Amino acid sequence: MTWLRLLIIVLLLGYLSTGIYQIPADERAVVRRFGAVIARPGPGLWLSAPWGIDRVDRVRVRTVRQLNVGYHPEFGDDAGMTPPGQLLTGDQNLVNLKVVVDYAIDDRDGYLDDFVMNQGQTETVLRREAEAATAEWVAGRTVDDVLLTGRAGIPMWLMSQLPPRLASQHLGIVLQRVSVDYLAAPGEVRDAFEAVNQAQTAIRTRLNQAEQQASLRRREAAAVSYRLAQQAAAYRQEAVALARADAEAFTRRWQQYQQLRVSNPHLLTAIWWEEIGRTLTSMKAKGRLEVFDPTLSSAGLDLTQFLAPPK
Length: 311
Known about the structure:
The chain has helices at 2-17, 109-118, 122-139, 143-167, 190-260, 267-285; strands at 20-23, 27-33, 36-39, 44-47, 54-60, 65-70, 86-88, 94-105, 173-184, 289-291, 304-306. The protein has 311 residues and is of the alpha+beta class. The chain folds into 3 domains: 2-60, no CATH class; 65-185, Band 7 domain (Tetrahydropterin Synthase, Chain A, 2-Layer Sandwich), CATH 3.30.479.30; 266-311, no CATH class. Helix 3 packs antiparallel against helix 4. It is elongated, with a radius of gyration of 50 Å.
């Protein structure tokens, strides 16, 4: 009977050892006793009641998990069927779309419990909510808008829409990142869409070139405007300086006239002839005045003719 007792002791020790757990550094555990959560131990050695009484679920909380949602390019388009991830746009066109959702487990106590309780349906619910939110975004836009802006717009939309939707599902996960892995028109019309995209790219290129040319012309016009403004300012300063000089000269001469007219009553006549002589000399220098008969000058008679200004 000794061997039977020894066997019983070994079996009892083996059964009790089922309550000894080693939890790695990147994991946390949730201990349930008859279904109720009694502890959430961290990394290290953990002792609990043996199997059948306590259940220990170990969870890798530092691992980022990925979920592919939507279209799978490697499978192609099934004839006669709408493949997963083929969505209808707002202008009644189809696009094939695949997004990748990165998520991690929330290691806070209550959220960790939610993950352990619902981990069997986590990816199913996450995929359903991601598909619904993506279809909503696509349905509100034209196919051109989806193809041009989808890779940037869809991740932003899902990162704002999924967290509140998942909160009511009590999945115990944290959304890390969303990216668009594949976005294209169906194979039957892909060539046409690529041609349209190439045309739109060419249009944008032409617009950019036109904007660059317009910017260059504006800079050149600004430079010309600045140069003309500087020339006008310099001309104004010169004209003002000349006008002031003329005004000062006239003022001085007027003052001299006021002083000398008492002693010389013929002063005004002399000034008049002086100005007439200066005017005639200037006109002759410009080719607008010539002597009609120079032989008469010595006899005291000087006949001249005034010429019209050249056209």
